[in-house]
Records
---
Amino acid sequence: MSAEATNPASPGPVINTVPRRKARPRIDLRRLGRAALLGPTARDRLPDAIGHVAEAHRAHYPDADLEPLRRAWVLAESSHRGQMRKSGEPYITHPLAVTLILAELGAETTTLTASLLHDTVEDTEVTLDQVGEEFGAEVRYLVDGVTKLEKVDYGAAAEPETFRKMLVATGSDVRVMSIKLADRLHNMRTLGVMRPEKQARIAKVTRDVLIPLAERLGVQALKTELEDLVFAILHPEEYDHTRELIVDNSSRADDPLAEVTDEVRTVLRDADIQAEVLIRPRHFVSVHRVARKRGRLRGADFGRLLVLVNEDADCYGVLGELHTCLKPVVSEFKDFIAVPKFNLYQSLHTAVAHTDGQVVEVLIRTHQMHKVAEAGVIALGNPYAPPSEEQQAANDGERADPTRPGWLSRLLDWQEGAPDPDTFWSTLREDLAQDREITVFRPDGGTLGLPDGATCVDAAYAQYGEDAHACIGARVNGRLATLSTVLKDGDTVQLLMGQDPASEPSREWLEHAHTPAARIAIQRWIAAHPGRADEAGAEADEAAQGARSAPPTSEDTPDTPTERPATPVVDQPGATVRLAGCCTPVPPDEVTGFSVRGGVVTVHRVECAAVAQMKGVGRAEVGVRWGDTTECRVTLVAESFGRPHLLADLTEAIALEGAEIVSATVEPPTQQRVRHTYTLQLPDAAHLLALMRAMRNVPGVYDVSRAQHHTTAF
C-alpha cells in the first residue's frame, strides 16, 4: 500500500498505517498494467505483474501455495484484457491493486484469489460456475458475494434493501466485506477522474456506511485511509489547512515525540524489556479532530508512541516501568487488553508528561495485537480453518467466532425484525454513526458492548433479545436503578427479570432505547399489539417500582391485592378479602381474619405477630377458610453469603419451580451477607415448600423463610 494515492488526480498524501516487514519500492500500477497486456506467462513461474502481491503474501504466510494466485491472475488478466478504467489505466490494475492491499494486510490465499477475480463475473464473460470449477466452492462463494454488492452505492431507492443483502452476505463470510472495503479504498484513491458531484456522492456513502463497517471489522488501516480520502473530497478547505499543519510540524527542529521515544527506549532497555518503540503519526482526520478539541496544536499532538512487545505480560511490564520512571497522566490510562473492544482491538493506552508540559500518548501492545489492530478480521486468515494458538489467544468473548463477530450477529438479528427496508436503513445509519462504544459488565462475568449513551433498556435487549419485554428493573453497580438510567463505561449491570412469558414492554421504553435491537424489538411488539402498549407500560412501571421498593411497614399498606390470588370464603357476608402483606398467607396455612375500615377483612397466618397484637387490644377475629383456588402470591426472604452470580442462580432456581417474580429487592451486603426479598406468584400453593427447598439448595444460601413484616396494631 503506497504512502499516497496512485493516481495523480487523487486529493493528496495519505499516511500509511500498515505494518511492513521490510521496505519495498513504490509500485507503478501503470507499468504493471502494460506488462499485463504482453500476454500469458509460462506456467512454471509466477507472472512478474503479481510479484509484489506474492512478496507481500509470503511475508505473512511463508509456506503459502502461490499456484492458485498464478491461475487466478491468468484468468483475470485474459478476461479483462482490452478493458480500461476511466483513469486510462488497463482495468486489470484495479483487481491487482485491491489484491495487493489485502496481501499487505495479511489476507490468506483464498481471499487473494477471490480478490483477483472479484470483477470477472460482473464485467466479463466468465461465469460463477467456471470460477467454481477452476478454484473451488469457497472462491466461488466469495466472488458471488462481492458481485452482489457492486450496485450497493448507486440509487437511493435501492440502497436500503441492497445494503440489507450486503449485511447478509457479510454475515455468512466476513471476507466478502474485506474485499469490498479494499475495492472501495482503491476506487477512492482514483476518484479524482470523476465529476465532483459523483465524487461527493460516493464519498458520502463511504463515510456513512463503509468506514463505520471497517471500524466494526477492526480494519484500522483501511478505515484511516478511507477517512482521509473522504475528508479531502467533502471538506477540502479543512483538509488543506490540516495538511499545512502537518507539513509545518514536520519542519520543526524540536520534536517532543522523538525526545520521549529516546527516554522510553532507555527506560525499557535498563529494565531488560525487549520492545520496539516507534512514533506513530496521526492521520489527517485524527489531527483535525485533535485540533478542534484542543485548539492550538503542539508537537506531541501530531502523533503517539507505539511500543511493541512479544508477550501479553510484557505489556504490563512496560506500563509499570513507564509509570515508575516517567510522569504518568493517570486519567489517560485505559486497559483494552483485559477488556478488548468489540472489534478485536487490544492495547494498553497511557500518557506521560514531557518536560515542557506536553502530554505524549503511548500505545502498548504485542506484535500480534498490532497486526490485529491494523487488519482486524483480515488478520484472522481463513475463518473456517482451525485456529492457530495465536488466534486462540486473540479471540475471546463475543469475538470467539471470526466468521460472525458479536456486533454483526446482533445486526443480522435485528435486521430480520425491521418492519421495512427504510426503517432498517435509517436505524442502521444511526447505529453506525455511533463513534464510541462502552463496555458494561454482567454479574456472571460476561460483558456487553453498547453505544455511548445506552441505557438499561438497551442492556436488557442486548442480553435477552425479545425476552427483555419481561424486564422489571435493574441494579447498576449494586444500586437499584430505573430502566432509563444511562450507563457509563465500566458499569456493572444486573437486570431483574420477571418470569411471565406474556410480559409486555412499555411504549415509554422507546424514549430510552438507543440501540437498533431495543428500538426494533419494542416497535415490533407495539405494531403487533395496537392499543395494549400503554396498559402494558403502566403494569411494567408498577412492577419496576415494586422491585425498587422496600417491604411495607404497616397493615394499611402491605395487603397487596393479587391478580390470581388464593382467596379464603369469609364468615362476614359482603366483605372484601385482602391477604396481609406482613405474613403473606397461602394454602394450606391456618388463617384468621380481622375487619378493617371499608368493609375489608384482612387475612393473616395464625402465627403472625400481628394476630397476637390485635387480639391483645381486643380486636374480634373473623372466621376464614381457603376456597378451591390454588394459585397464590407469597413473599420469601433468602439469607445468603455474598458471592458472584448468586442472584442469577437464585432467579434460575425460582424459574425452574414455575414461580413468577413479581418484585425483587436485594439489600446492600452486610459483613459478606446478603438479604434477598422476592414477591412471587405460584401456580399452585402446594409447590411452596418445594420452591423454598430449591432456593435453600442454591450454594451460598443458608436460609429461606416467609416474610414477616413489622405491623402496628389497629
Note: The first helix runs from residue 29 to 36.
---
Amino acid sequence: MRQPLHRSIVFTLAFFAMGILNAQLPTPFWTENFTAGIPAGWTSEDESNQNVLWTWCANPLLGDSDPGCSQPWDDALNGQVPFKATTAITGFAVLDSDDPGQLSISHVSQLTTAPINCTGKSQVYITFQTHIGVYSFDAETNAIVRVSTDGTNWTEYTVFPGLTTTERWSENPETPILNISATAANQSNVWIQWEWTGNYEYMWSLDDIELYDQDPTPQNDVAISAFFYPVSSYSTPVSQIASDTFQFEVNLSNKGLNPQTNLVVTAYVKEDGGSTLHTQSISIPSLDPGVSDSNFIFPVRYAPELNTGLYTVGYTLTSDSIDQRPVDNEREDNFVVNNNYFAKEDGPEQGYRPSAGGEWAVANYYRMNGGNFEVYKAAQAEFAFSTNSDEIPIGDVEAALYLFKINNDVAEDFSDFDISSILSSSTEWLGVASYEAPDTIDSYELQRVDISDLNTGLTGVVLEPGGRYLLAMGYEGASSKVFHAFNDDIFYYFPSTFIFNTDWNVNGFGGDVNALLRMYIGLLSTTDEQALPQNTLNIFPNPVHRTLQLGIEFVEPTDATITIADINGRVITFEDRYGLTKETLQYQLPQLASGTYLARIATAKGTLTKKFVVQQ
C-alpha cells in the first residue's frame, strides 16, 4: 500500500454531469431543492462537537466569498468545477470540511430532514444530486445516508460505493438512487440524514432531493464506465511518438432497466483546436440490463505521426434508445507530444511512499522508437518530492538515480520479471546519478540531474532503438521518509510506474497513480563521424526568423532522419523521410528563442550537422 503525504495538491479528472432526467421518469412525491435555504424543521449538527456544520450556499459561483459556501476547487491542480446540480444556481446545501483545517477529533456532521410522511407508499426510493471530495476518510463508508422512523434508530445506506481516498472526487454531480423501502415504506414519520465523518477533507454538496414511490432508475441509461488510455506515456518526444501504436478499448455498462440495442462506440484522436486525426467505430448488437464493465476492444490500431502539441483521445457512445442520463456517454483525456522528454503525468499532485516504511524506490517504464537513423541518449532525469518537516527537512533529502535496460527476453506484460532485487536479473544497469537537495527547495519543485553512463562516467546513456527502460529513483536512510510526487489523472492499463520496497511491484500503487519521474533524451552526438557531402544539407535563410528551410540533395533516393536540436543536442523536432532526392523541407519555428541551433540529417551512410541562428 502507499502512504499519502499530508494535505497538498490533488487532481483527478472529472466528467461533468447535468443530471437532467428524461420526462419518462416517474413523478416524485416529495422534493427539496434548497431554493429558499435549508428548510424549517431541518437540523445541522456535529456529533463530535467540532462545529463543522452543513450550511446553505446561494450560488456555487460564490465560492469562499460567501460564508455559507465552499471553494469549488476549480483551480488548475484540482480540476473541479462549481457544483453542477440542476438547480444549484438557486441554492444548495454544503458541508465545507476543508475550512476548519486539521481537527483534533474528526467531525461527524449531520444534516437531517424534518419528518416526511410516506404513508401509503409501498416503495420508497430517494435520489439526489451530489458532489464530494475526500482526502483522509473514504466516502464509501464515511459519507452516508441514514434513515429513521423514530429519530433514534438509524439504517445506513451507501452513497458513494468504491469512492476511496485514491479516487478522491465523485462525479459532478453524482446522482445515486437508493431503495429505502425496508425502512421508510408506509411510515408516517421518516427522517433522512446525510452524515459525513471526516477531518480536513474537501466539501460535500447536496441538492435536488426527490422521493419516489416507484423505482426512478431510467429505462435507458448506458455508460462508458471505463476507457483505456492508449498512449504509453502522457508526454512523448516527437522523435518517438510514431512507434507508440495505440490500441483503443472501453468498458460499457447498462445502468437502465431496458435492454439496449445497436450500440455504437466511436474512438477518436483530435489535435488541439478540434481537427480529427483518427476515428473508428465498433458496433455492439445488444447490452442487457445489469451488465457492468463489459470490455470491448477496437480492431484497428493507430500509429500516430504527430508534431509537437496537445492532443485528445476520446470515446463516444450511442444506441437505438434516447439515453436518459447521457452524461457518461462521452469520455476523453489529453496527451502531449513534446520536443525531448518522456513523462507519465502532467504535473505533481500528491506525494506517496510505501506504508510499510523502509528503503524504497520508484521507477517509470519508457520505450524507445524502433526505427530511425539517429542515435539518442538518456541525458537527464526530472522529478519532484516533498517531506514532513518533522521527519526530515526537505533540504536534507538525498537520492540515487538508476537507468536500467529491460532484457529483451522479458515478457511484454512483465509477467516473468524478476522482482526479487532492485538490481533485477531482468534488467541491465546502465546509468546512474546522485542527488542532494538544495537548501532553498520547495515542496514539489521540479529537480533535474544529469544521467551518467555507469561504465564510462560520461554524461548520457545510449538508448537502443526499440529498447525498454526503467528510470528509477531510490531513497535510503533518513530519505526513505520522502514522499515522491505522483499524479492520479491517467489510468494506464499496462505496467507504467513500478515500486520497489522489499521487492518490485510492476503495478506500482495502481494504474492511475503515476510517478513524476521524467526522462529527457537528446542526440548522442552532434558531430559527424561519417560525414555526408556538404551539399547534402543547406540551410536558408540563415539567420532564421520563423521559418527554417532545408535544401536536401541526394544522388539516389535515400531514407533519412531530419532533426532540429538546440546547441546542446536537445531535440526540438524530428522527422523520418523516405526516398529523398532533391527537395526543400520547411519547419515553422516561432517558439524558439534567439540563439544558435542545429540542423542534422542522418542516413545509413552517415550524418551531416550544420548550425543556424534564430533571430526573434
Note: Residues 534-614 form a domain with the Immunoglobulin-like fold (CATH 2.60.40.3080).
---
Amino acid sequence: MSAVPSAGPGTPNAGTPHPGTPDPGGSVYAAQPWLALLSDAQRAPVTPPPTVLHAWRAAVDRAPVHPALAYFDGRLSYREADELSDSVAGHLAARGVRRGDRVAIMLQNSPHFVLALLGAWKAGATVVPLNPMYKSGEVAHVLADAGVTALICSDRAWEAHLRDTAAAAPELRVALTACELDLQSVNDPRVLGFERLPAPGPDDLADDLLTAARAGNPAPADRDPTAVDTALISYTSGTTGTPKGAMNAHGNIMVNAERQRTGHPVPEGSAYFALAPLFHITGMVCQLAACVANAGTLVLAHRFEAGVVLEAFATHRPAYTVGPSTAFMALAAHPDATPDHFASFLVISSGGAPLPPALVERFRAGFGPYLRNGYGLTECTAPCASVPPEREAPVDPVSGTLSVGVPGPDTFVRILDEEGREVPFGEQGEIAVRGPQVVPGYWNLPEATAETFPDGELRTGDIGFMDPAGWLYVVDRKKDMINASGFKVWPREVEDVLHTHPAVREAAVVGVPDAYRGETVRACVSLRPGASVEPGELGAYCAERLAAYKYPREVEILAELPKTASGKILRRELRSPR
C-alpha cells in the first residue's frame, strides 16, 4: 500500500517518518534530569496504534455500545459513529476524493466534526482543520494553498460566504454542509440560537453531511493510512504573518495521545470534555485522540460558553479536560460555578495560553482541582512538556513564572542562544524540541521548513529556560519582547503580576511606540464580575512589584480582551493606537 505524501512538492522530509527516540549526543542536557520527576508508568516506552483509525476500530471492537460522542442530550455509540463515518467515507470516495486528497473541515465542537474527520481519514484523505471564525479571504488562502478537494462546513457558513469562496477554489469539487442543530434536541439558545436552513437543493454544489452519513454507503477498502502519512495539515493561528500548514503525521498524533492515556489516571471509558476546539491541535490530540485511545466518551458543547460548559460538567461528570487559561478564568468568574461542577475531574490540564500562578491558586482555593500546566505547539502536535499528575509545578522565585512542566521520556528539549549554542541550566534562550511528536515540516514551504526544523529539531520561537531538576519555564515569544530604553521586558512577567490583583480577570501586555523610550509597556485588562479599579491603581500596583523599566505606563480596562477561537489573547490587536 503506497503512503500518502507527508509534504507538498519540494518539501524536505516528504513521506519520511520523524525520528523516534532523540539522540542527545554531547548535549549538556543529555542526562535528561526530568526523567527523575516521572513515575515508572510515565517513563515506560509506549507502542501506540499507527493511527487514530486503528485506535478507533479497537474501541469499536471492545466497547461497541459505549457512547463515543455526547452532544447535549444526544448520544452516538462507537458502533453507530463507526457506521455513520463509513458512509461519509463512501460518499466522499464516490464523489472522487482520492487517496492523498485534502479535505477541509470547518465546524464547531459537534458530532458532525468527528464524523467528518473519521470519514475523511477512512477515504484516505488528509484533513485540513479550519477555524470557524475564519473570514472568506482566510478560507480562500487555505483552500488554495493546500489544494483542497473537498470542504465540510456548517450550513450557515456555506450560505453566508463559503459557497462563493468554494466556487473560486482552484481544486475544490466536493462539499458537504452540516446543520449543527442535528443529533440533539436541547437547542440551547446560548450556543445554538440559530435557525435551521433548508437542505441543499439538487443544483447546489453541497450535499447534506448527515444525509450522506445515513445513506449506508460502504467505506472504500484498502485506504487506511499508515503512521507516516499526513493526518492533518494544521494551519498556524496566523496571529502574525501568513498562516503555515504544519504536517501532523498520524504517528505524531498517536504517540502524544498514547502518552496522554498512559500518563494520566483516567479509567477506560471515562468522559472527556472537549473544552478546547477540535480544529485546534490541543483539542484534536489531548481530547479526541486520547479519548478514542481510552475508549471514552467525548462530550461536546458546540463552542465555549461558561454557563453551558458548567451545566455539561454537572450532567456528564467528565474525568478530564484541557483548555486555555482564559477559559478557566471565565469559568471561575461565572456566578453559578461551585466546587461540585469540578468534583468529577481526575485531571484538568491547561495549555494554549500562559497560565498565571495566581489563577492556579485562586482556582484551587475556590473549586478544588489543581490546574496542570502544559506546553506545546502545532509543530509538535500539542504537548511536548506537562506537569506530571503526581507533581505540582514550581514557580521561579526570580521571575514569578510558573513552570510548564517537564518533557516526556522520548522528548528532548534544549535551550539555545542566538547562535544556536546550548546555554547552561537556568539561562534563558530559545526552546528547541526533538522527539516523535515533532512534525516533518510545513506544507509546500521548504525554506521555512529548513529554517524552523534544522536536522529535524523544532526551533519554537519561544524564550525559556530549564532548571537543573528538569522543570521547563516559558518566558515569552521572541517576537513579543519589549525593548524599553534598551531594557528587555517580557510581557508574561508583567501579566503574572497583574493577575495577582484581586480585581483582574485577564491581562495582556504589549509594547507600543514611545518617542523617548523607543517602546513603552501597555497593559490591557478585563475585570472580575463586580470588581472596580482605576487604571492608575493598577499601574501603581505593578510599580511596587516590578523594576522601574517594567511596570506599565499605559493601562487600559476593557470589557473583554480579543481572543482567537482557541482562547489565545490577540496581542497584535492591543498594539493599535488608542
Note: The chain is about 30% helix and 20% strand.
---
Amino acid sequence: MISKPTIQKIIDEARVEDVVGEFVTLKRRGSNLLGLCPFHNEKTPSFNVNPARNIYKCFGCGKAGGPLQFLMDYQQMTYPDALRYLAKKYNIEIEETRDETDQKEQIEKQNLTESILIANTRAQKFFTDYMMNNEAGGIGLAYFKERGFIDKTIEKFQLGYAPDAGSLLTQTMLKEGFQLDILKKAGLTSPKEGSTYDFFRNRVMFPIHNMTGKVVAYGGRIMVKDEKAPKYVNTAESEVYQKSKILYGAFFAKNEIRKKDECLLVEGYTDVISLHQSGIENAVSSSGTSLTPDQIRLVKRITPNITMLYDGDAAGIKAALRGTDLILEEGMNVRVVILPAPEDPDSYVRKVGAEAFQKYIQENKKDLILFKTSLFATEAKADPIKKAELIRDIVDSIAKIPDAIQRSVYVKESSQLFDMSEQILITEVNKARRKKQGELQKEEEKQQQRESPVKDELSAAAHKAQTIENPSNLPVLEHDIIRILLEFGSWKTQDNETEISVVQYVLEELEGLDIETPRYKVIFDLIKRDFADGVVHDEGFFSANDDEQIRNLAIDILTQPYTLSENWWVKYKVAIAEKKDRFVKDIHSTIIRFKQFKNIVELRKIEKLLKEPKDEADLQRLMRLHVLLMEQKKEFARTIGNVVYRPNT
C-alpha cells in the first residue's frame, strides 16, 4: 500500500482547480471558480471550486470534496488509483508500505475494484495474445483485417479474440492465482451446469475503457451465424462499469474532441475504430445502446458541440430523432448527418477516404429543424394533419432548449419553413415550457423534502435566531463553534502574552461544556482526542478526511454559495476586513454566545429545582448557584450586548 508520508505529500501537492479543470470548464467568480456541476444536470452553474481551501462544493446536488474525492466520484477511481493518478500528475515518487490502521471495509472495497481492473487487464492481454500468436485465434485476426484494421490500430484499441474453448481463459487465470469470485464479478466467467465457463467464447473482443484508459468491460461480436445467440454481448455492470456512463472510444478521443471543439457520435465499435484509423479521432460511440443523459454530459464537459452520424435506414433515423432531444435538453449544439444508404461510418470512410468523408459531413450537417423537416417534408406538405404533427414535434423539441436566444432563432426558422405565424409558435413553445417547468418544480419540491436535515435545521434555527425567544439556537451555536475550530484551529492567538493554538484556546474556554448535536460532536470529540495527543489539524485534514461523514460536514461548514467580487472595493468603496484581522473577534464572540446559552440552560434548571428543594441545605446551595449564574448572565450581556440566546424552557 502507499505509505502515509507519500499520501500526505500527494494531498499537499494536488490542487483542486488543476484536477477539476481537466474535466470541467471553470470561470473565475471572485476568489472562487464556478462551473456546471459534472454530477447532476443543471443549466445554471452552481459548482464552486475554492482554490484557497483546495475543495469543491456543488450547491445544487451537495457533492463536495477535494482533488482525491473528485477523481473517485467522477472517474470512479479507487482511492489508490486516485492517489497514483495524482502522483503521476505531480511527479511524486510513490513509497509503498503496509498500513494496518486502514479501515477493513474500505480496504476490501478498494481491493475488489483493483482486482476487477487487474483481471480485465489480464484478460485483454490473453485475448490479444491468443489472436496474434495462436493458430486458432487467426479467425479473429482475419475478421479485423477484413475490416481493414492495421496492426497499429489493433494494438491501440487492444482488440482480441475469445477462443471457442469452454473455459480456457478461466483456467489460465486461475492457474495464475486469480480468484474465481473476482473473475465472476468482472464478468469474465459464468457458472453453468455446476461448472464454470468463459463468458465470452468464439467472439472478437472490443475492450471498453474508462476515461483514464483502464479496461472496465468488453463487447464481444459472435463469429458464427447463430439465430439463438445475440450478435453482440457485453459485460454486465459491475463495481467498475456502468454502461450508461461510458462512451466507447472516449479515452482515445477526448484530446481531439477538445482540440476540434466537436464530438462525432456514432453507433458501433467498428465505426469508432475505422474513423480513428483514418485520422478522424474525435469520434465516440454509445456502443449500440440508446444514448443516455450521462453519456451526453460526458461529452459536454469537453465540448458543447455534438454531430451525430447515423445510417440512412429506419433504425438509424429513429435513433437520431431520439438522441437530438436529449442533447438539446443539456443545452448543447446538435447537428445530424444521415449517411447515404446502405452505408455506415465504418463502411463509408473506408469507401471514400477521410477527406471525402469529412467533406460530406460538413456539407450535410443539419440542425434540428432542417433534419426533422427534411425527413417528413414530402408527406407533410400533402397532408395537413401530418404537417401539424410535425410542427408540434418540432415545438416540443424547441421547448427543451434552455437558451432563449437559440430558441428564438429556431422559432423564426420554423416560422419561415412552415409559412405560419411566429407568434403562434412562440405561444406553443411557451406552453410546452410551462408544462415542463411545472413537472420540474414538482420534482424539485420532492427533492427538497429529501435534502439533508442539516441544512433544514440550520436554516430554520438561523431564522428563529432573529427573535429573543428561541428554542432552536443550540445547533446554530454549535455549528459556529465547529466552524471556528475547522477554520482557525491551527492558527495562533495570544493568551496572557503566551502564543497558543486556537484549538487550545477554545478547548480551555469550553472546559466542562460539551457539544450535544451528534454530527458536530463527532468532529469536536476528534479534535479533543487528537489535541490530547499533541496534534492540531488544519482545515485541510477535515475537508480531505477519509471519513465521509466528517469530510462532507467539514466542507459544508467551510463553504458558502456566494463570494465577494474582487471589484467590491472599487465599485462600492467599502473595505472588507481580512479574515486574519477579524478572526480573534469572531472566536471571542462565538465562545461568549455559546457560554451564554449554556448559562441560561443551567439557570432554568436551577429555577425549576428551587421550586421544590429537598431540604434547607439544598435550598441554600441552589440559591448560591442561582446568584452565581445570574452574575454570569449579566456579564455575558454586558460583553456582547442585550440580545440573549434563550434555550427551550
Note: The CA atoms of residues 453 and 459 lie 10 Å apart.
